[in-house]
Amino acid sequence: MNDTDILNHLFDKQVICPVCDANFKVKTVKSKSPRVNSKDSDFFVRYSVANPYFYDVVICNSCGYAAMKSDFENIKSHKKELVFSNVTPKWKPRQYPDILDEKLAIERYKLALLNAMLINLPDSTKGMISLKIAWMNRLLGNNAQETLFLKQALEGFNDAYIKEAFPIYGLQRDSLMYLLGELNRKLGDYQNALLWFSKTIVSINSSYKIKEMARIGKDLIKAADV
Question: Which InterPro entries match (predicted)?
Answer without folding.
Answer: DUF2225
